[in-house]
Structure formats: structure tokens, C-alpha cells
């Protein structure tokens, strides 16, 4: 590049000076500006305001200010005047969006489907976290290969889980009934009335209270099939033992820790 620059000839200073002189003479005479002028510009005259006839504050000028006129476009047609459209309004009638937002059946179906899906998901998660037979559940990969076998095994495991929960519930109820029976025996042994204490009246019920007058039968043991004589005899013996637990004249009798029947001690004035 340096060799090319040296090879190209450059214009001399004399050529540039001649070009400047030629362009200088082509300029108009009026456009020329001399360094000094003999005439001096006259100073501007001061502005003199007209004297008002009375005092007018800026808020009440002599002339009303003209308000700017805005162009809002062409006039609305009669169809446009009947329909009002504002931002964030419902879609116009006849459109698909308006039908979707105003259809009650679709909204009810969506709400019920969401609630049912939530109930099913909670039920499945509770079953998976509480069942003791989680190791018997089929693997998830079995659902695609054998869907019917997968569902059948899942139902069998769920039935086992229901039986296990039912057995636990029955055992808890039995323990509570035994606890109430022991509490009743303790109150009889210590001569505590049924209506006393914090848990007054919370004791075991007799057979008559359990069965009730509607199921009572004459000469027959309630809840026992007459076709089995052994069961009838055993029930009569149990009923006789229950009757012997009450002494003469309706006195309460309890069995002490040695196995002897003793009458419940009488309380003075029903207090002690």
C-alpha cells in the first residue's frame, strides 16, 4: 500500500490556490461579509404595553381563552351506537368466547372433574402411605403390558387393606367396651353411684338396656337360636349368673378379687 501511495502523483499547492480563487469570485456580492462596516445597527425600540382601563387579574383576562378542538374521528353509525364496547369487557354475543364463558354446563363439568380428581388423588396417596401391604402392589410397568391383571391385583390388595383396617377398628372398640366394663365393676366394688364422678353415668349397660323392650321375649333368651339346645343352655346359665349378681330386694352384688360375691356397701345419705 505504501508503494501505491508513492506511485500516485499528488496535486501541488499552487493548484489548490487557483481553485480557491475561482470559487471565491463565483460567490454573490451580497453574501460577502467584510470585517468592518461604517454603519452601526440601530438599537431596538422598547416594547410599551397598553395601559388597561381597570385591574384584571390573570385568572380573569379580558378575552376568553379558546379551548383546543380535538378530532375524534368520524361519527359513529347507528349499529355502533347500540353496542357499547369498553376495555376489559365480555366478548360480544355470538362469538365462541362468549359462549364458553356463559355456558353453565361447561363450568359445572370442569368444577366437578377437578373435585373428583382431587378426591381420587388424595384417596390413592392415603392408601399408599398407610397400607401395610405396599410390597404386594404390582409394579407400574405392569400397567402397560397387562392392564387387567394390574387392576385386579390392585383391587385384591385394597380389599386386604380394608379388612386390616376393619379388624383394627373392631379391636379398638372391643378395648373401649372392656374398659367401660372394668370401670363399672370398679365403681360397684367401691360403692360409687352411677351418676357420681367426672364421668358419671358412663358405665356398662345391662342386657335389658342393650336389648331393649322391643326385642324382649317371654321365656326365650334374646339373640340365641332355639334350634341349638347347647347354645340355649349356655345362654340361660349366663343369664342366671347375671341375675345372681343382684341380691335380695335389688341389692347390688359384686365379685371381689378373691372371687367371692359381696354386697355393695350402702352409703349414708347417698354421699359416702
Automatic annotation (TrEMBL):
TM spans, by residue?
106-124
Task: Report residue spans for region: Disordered.
Answer: 36-78
Q: Does the keyword Transmembrane helix apply?
A: yes
Alphabetically sorted, this entry's keywords are: Membrane, Transmembrane, Transmembrane helix
Superkingdom classification of source? Eukaryota
Compositionally biased tracts (Basic and acidic residues): 47-56
Q: What is the recorded name of this protein? A: Uncharacterized protein
Amino acid at each position: 500500500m505504501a508503494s501505491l501511495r508513492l506511485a500516485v502523483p499528488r496535486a501541488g499547492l499552487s493548484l489548490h490556490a487557483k481553485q480557491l480563487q475561482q470559487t471565491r469570485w463565483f460567490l454573490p456580492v451580497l453574501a460577502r461579509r467584510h470585517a468592518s462596516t461604517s454603519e452601526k445597527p440601530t438599537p431596538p425600540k422598547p416594547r410599551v404595553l397598553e395601559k388597561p382601563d381597570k385591574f384584571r387579574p390573570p385568572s380573569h383576562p379580558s378575552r376568553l381563552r379558546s379551548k383546543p378542538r380535538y378530532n375524534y374521528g368520524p361519527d359513529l353509525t347507528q349499529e355502533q351506537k347500540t353496542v357499547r364496547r369498553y376495555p376489559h369487557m365480555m366478548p360480544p354475543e355470538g362469538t365462541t368466547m362468549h359462549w364458553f364463558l356463559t355456558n353453565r354446563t361447561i363450568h359445572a363439568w370442569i368444577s366437578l372433574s377437578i373435585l373428583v380428581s382431587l378426591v381420587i388423588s388424595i384417596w390413592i396417596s392415603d392408601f399408599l402411605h398407610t397400607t401395610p401391604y405396599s410390597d404386594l402392589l404390582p409394579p407400574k410397568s405392569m400397567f402397560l403390558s397387562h392392564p387387567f391383571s394390574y387392576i385386579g391385583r390392585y383391587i385384591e390388595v385394597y380389599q386386604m387393606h380394608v379388612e386390616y383396617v376393619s379388624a383394627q377398628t373392631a379391636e379398638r372398640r372391643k378395648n373401649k367396651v372392656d374398659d367401660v366394663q372394668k370401670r363399672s365393676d370398679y365403681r360397684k366394688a367401691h360403692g360409687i353411684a352411677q351418676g357420681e364422678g367426672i364421668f358419671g353415668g358412663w358405665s356398662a349397660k345391662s342386657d335389658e338396656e342393650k336389648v331393649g323392650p322391643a326385642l324382649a321375649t317371654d321365656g326365650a333368651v334374646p339373640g340365641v337360636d332355639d334350634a341349638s339346645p347347647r347354645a340355649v343352655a349356655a345362654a340361660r346359665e349366663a343369664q342366671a349368673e347375671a341375675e345372681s349378681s343382684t341380691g335380695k330386694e335389688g341389692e347390688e352384688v359384686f365379685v371381689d378379687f378373691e372371687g367371692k360375691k359381696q354386697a355393695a356397701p350402702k352409703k349414708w345419705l347417698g354421699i359416702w
